[in-house]
Structure formats: structure tokens, C-alpha cells
Amino acid sequence: MKNAYLYFIERILPSRISYRLALSYLLILCLFIIVVVRSVTQVQDVSRRSQEFASQDLQKLLQVQNLALDIEGSTSALVLIFNATQEKRKPAYDAIDAKKKHIDELIQKLSAESDDEVQLICLQRLAVTHQEYRQSYLNLFDEIELDNPDGAKQVFETQVAPARQAFLSESNVLLDLAKQRIQQRQEEEQEDLERLKLQILAISVLAVLSGIVLAFITQSSVVQPLSMLEQSALRIAAGDYGSKVPPTRTTEVAQVSHALNIMTDAIASREAEIEQLAYYDSLSNLPNRTRLLRKFEQQDLQHHAMILMDVARLKIVNETLGFGTGDTLIVETSQRLQRALSHHTDTMTFLAKFSGGQFALFCAAKPDSESNTKRLVEQIINDIKLELNVPVQCGNYSVDVNLVFGIALANSETKNLATLIRNAEVALYAAKEHSETSAWYSDAQEASRLGHLSLLSDLRSAIQNNELQMWLQPKIHLHDLRCYGFEALVRWQHPQRGFISPIEFIPFAERAGYISHVTNWMLQQAAQTLASWQSRYPHLSIAVNVSTNDLRDQQFPERVRHLIQQYQLRPENLQLELTESGIMENPDNAIPLLQTLRATGIGLSIDDFGTGHSSLAYLQKLPVSELKIDRSFVIDIDQQDSTQKLVRTIVEMGHGLDLHVIAEGIETQAERDTLIKLGCDSIQGYFASKPLHGNALEQWLQSLPTDRA
């Protein structure tokens, strides 16, 4: 039934809502016009009938009544004749004749105007009884004229009275017929009025019902579709983009539905793009950190593991071969990780891509237990390493892929997934710090991390409060065993923790980006010391170690020049020691900065030479004046022929580049003597002197030969 109704609505009615509304209003208007026209027509008909009633039926009734009165009048005239004299009878006869004539005219007129057969028959009988009555009173007149009272009385009683009575009876019948006709006409008019009422009521009811039906149809064809559109809009607002607005023949609704469906698809497409950007890595299409956290924010972490993996040497690949090669390396790595995980379909694994070259794997064994999850992690790491055995082909280059793994296993103290990720990051940093391929998170790592955080805050205070100390280790010429300068070494005497080794806080300060403050403090101390030596030790120099961060700072040469001017130093008395790795990290920027520094007149020294990744092509471009051979090349050099050959080569190469060559870490006389034979220029180490500070330094300076002071 409902389907049939809907079929009627959709198929029979016009497709446009405006046409349906116009049709509804037109139909209701037509019904009211019919009511008005019908009412006016009926009123006009009633008015016409009323006029006819007034002009015809009432006139007939009056005529019939006049006829009855004339009959009564003629009868009264007959009574007067009995008592009248001869002279007075003549006017009475004339009056009776006039009445008779008038009665005949009335009967004739009524007969001519009447259309009622019963009335015509009654008029005919009335005319006959009238003639009989006339003949009877003419006989009466004859007896009266013969002066025969008894005969006249007899004629009156036997002829006139019965004829008169018959005449009166017929006239009364005629009068009753006239009254009945009038009453009938009145009843007919009343019936017409009742019918008019019923018709107007029926039309009005029909109009109301039509209005209700049209309102229901409008509601069905307009309001319901609009309600359907409203529900669809609410579903869209709630994020349900799958359900479409069903088609309809209603043009306006169909247009809005079509637009709404287009809008739904557009919103769904844009939201999918936004979700892709918000929750997925654009390069590898893997879920990102936000997606990982949201997906497992309510996850029970018991016996779950987080593996953070970082692509080793990605920065070098980007800088050397370009970021396109680095992107290819990341994409290929993500694909190989997924292939490695395809062997573990019976376990819970979720691979995500973090920033840079970092990947995260959230996993758990089935059945879950700490031992099973540990075994799973080891199996996954082995499978990943097998997948990464083959180098990645990036254009014309073949690049080896190595990952560093940081692993954290959830326990009762792991609050949420973010905490588990942080623990894995701590383990990853620990693996990098110790040059290992993988590391499991431990409480000791957390304690070390927290200790480093507090050290950073303390280091700031130490610089401000002069808690740092500058220790100086002498540099000795081998040809005369005399001191020509010192290397400045920073030491930290913490007020609560005591002595803190540079090995502990210097690397941390470099990672935290705070090493430049330490460098500035050391330069300030070196400048002050050199200024105080100008009169006593004008030929002694101090070398300050410079970090990689300092070589990135384009304002660094200006600060050094300002110090030289501030303390009125001889530029050659201040030296800067640079590491190979710091220079080679970005040689295109480092070399111009070093040239600017060399232009101030200070000396530049390459520290720990041989342990980095120096390029000879770059070495000859560097504006340095000194090479420092690393300690690893001089340990037991007197006993190592191969090492001696290597050091001789380095010394000869340095001399070929007009560089002063110094070996550091010399601890024995045998090592010193061997270096003298190899042609090395200077040495530095415990054999010459330990790092000195305060009174020990002052005493050592006072022991120097006066001719070099």
C-alpha cells in the first residue's frame, strides 16, 4: 500500500515541488470558487422563485380569495332582494350581475394562468357550479318578480341554497388548493435551501479534506524528502560518508540530493587526504607516530614490545648523494621491513614511520609472555637484518643499509604507549652512544638520561658561576724539548657531585646544543690568560678545542676577532683545534669560515688526525697550520713497524703541506725517541706533563728556561 502511494506521489504528480504546490493551491481555490458560485447561483434562484411566488402564486391566492369574497357578496345581495322594494331591486340585480361578471372573469383568468391540472379541474367545476348557482338565483328573481314569496322561498331553499353551497364548497376547494400550492412551494424552497446547505457543506468538507490530503501529499513529497536530506546532513556531520541520499523524482529535492552527494564525496575525499597527511607518512605510506598512538591508546601493553629503528648514516647519504637518494633509501627500507614482517603473520605487529629515517614496530607474541615477546623481537631483528643484507640500488649508487635498534619491553610501570616509545628512544640513543647495533631499555639508561638532563641545567649554572676550570697541557718541541704552547682542557668541579669528567658532559652538551657556551667560556679564559702572560711568556700559545656546532655559526669568527681586540692579543698566540669529523660534516661551509678565522692571524690545528674521514683533496684546501696525530697511532709505536711507516707517511704529508706535525698522548721516552726519528715536530702527553691548573701550572711555568720566557 505504501509502495503504491509512493509510486503515485513520484509518478503521477509533477516532478517539481513548485508545480505540486501550485496544483494544490489551484485545486483548493477551485473548490472555494465552486462554493461561492454555487451559493450565488442558488441565492439568485431563490430570489427568482421568491419573485415568482410574489408575482404569481400570491396573486392567484388573492384572486381565489377575492373569488370567495365575491361569492359571499353575491349571496348577501340575494338576502337583500327578499326585503327590498321594487325600486331597490334594480340596483341589487345590477350588483349581482357585476359580481357574476367579475366571478366569471376571475375563473377565466385563473384558468388561463393555471398550469396545475387539479386546479384546472377545480376551476371547471367551479364554473359549472357558478352557472348552476346563477340559474338558481335567476329562478329566484323570477318568483320574486311574480311577487310569489312562497315560491321564491321554495326556490331559494330547493335551488339557490344547494347551488350556493356547492359553489362555496368548490371555491373553498380552490382556495385550499391555492394554499396547498403556496405551502408546497414554500416546502420546495425550504428543501432547496436545505440542499444548498448540504451542497455548500459537502463542497466545504471536500475542500477541507482536499486541503488535508494535499497537505499530507505535500508533507510526503516535500517535508519527508527534506527530513531525509536533514538526516543525511546529520550523518555527514557525524562522519558517515558511505550512505548516499536516495534518488527522487522531485526536481528540487533531487537537485539538493545530488549536490549533497557530491558534497559528501568531496568531504570524504578531502578528509581521506587530511587523514592520510595526518596519520600516514607521505614518503613510505606507513602509519606515523600520531596514528600509532591513537590506534593503541587504549591497548593493554602487558608483554608488548616497541622496537625503534634508525637508518644509520642517512645524513651522510643525503649530503653526499642528495635527498632524492635518501628518500629512495627510506622507501626501500620500509618495503624490506614489511617483507621481513610478512614472516610473522601469526603475531601482532604494527609498523610505523617516524621522522627522518626512524621506524617504529609495536609487537607482541602469541601467546603473550615476556620470554615469548623477547624471542619474537630477536627473530624479527634477525629477519630484518637478512632483508637488509643486499645493498639498495639508488640510481647509479649501491648503498648499504644498516639499522640501529632500540628495544623497550612494557612492564607494570609502563603507563602508556608514549612512555613505551620514550623508553625505546632512550635505548636507541644508548645504542648509538656505545656504537652498538641494538640495545634493550633498562632503568640504568633512564637514570643516565635523567642525570644528563639535570647536568644540562647544572652546566648552565656552572658557566654563569665560574664552576668550570681551564687546565693546560704543555706542547713540547722535539728538537729542543722546550714548551711553545698549551692545549686548553675544560674541567668541571661540581659543588655537589664533585669532579665530572669531560667525557661525561662534553658529548651531552654537544647533543643538547649547549657546547658553544662552553667554547665561549674557554675562549674567554684563554684570552684572559694570554693577556696576563704577555709580559712574562709572550711566545706561549693556548689552543682551544672547537666543536662542530661552532663551525656552523657564521658569527663565530667575529666573536674570536672581538676577543683578540678586547685583550690586545697577538693573534698567533691563540689557536683553535678542530676535529676532522667537524670539518668534513659540511666542508663547503666550514672551509670559508676557517679561512675567515685564519685571516685574523690565529693558528688552526686539525685534532685527532687519522681517526675521521678526511679527504686529501679537502686537506690541501684547509687553511690549517698544524696536524695532531691521534693517540691511537703512537701507542707502543716503538714496537710497531707498520705503525711507524704510517706515522712517517703522515709526518711527510704534513710537512709537504707546510704543516707543523704534533703527536698527542706520548707517555714513554721510547715513544718520544721514535717520533724524533720519524721527523715529528712536537709532542703532547703525560711524558711531557699532565694537564696543569692553578699553583701547579704556575710552578711549571716558573721552571721554564728564562731565555724562552
Automatic annotation (TrEMBL):
Domain GGDEF residue range list: 302-444
Residue ranges of every copy of the EAL domain listed in the record: 452-705
Key words of the record: Membrane, Transmembrane, Transmembrane helix
Protein's recorded name: EAL domain-containing protein
Stored PANTHER family: CYCLIC DI-GMP PHOSPHODIESTERASE PA2567, CYCLIC DI-GMP PHOSPHODIESTERASE PDEF
Residue ranges of every copy of the HAMP domain listed in the record: 220-272
Domain of life, per lineage: Bacteria
Transmembrane segments: 22-41
CDD domains: EAL, GGDEF, HAMP
Any one Pfam family match given in the protein's UniProt record, by short name: 4HB_MCP_1
